[in-house]
Amino acid sequence: MEKVFWRIEMSDTSSRPLRRGVSSAYCYGVCAGLAYCWMLPSVLIHILCALLITITFPLVFFIYIGLWLTLPKWDIEPDDFNGDH
Question: What is the value of pTM for the model shown?
Answer without folding.
Answer: 0.71
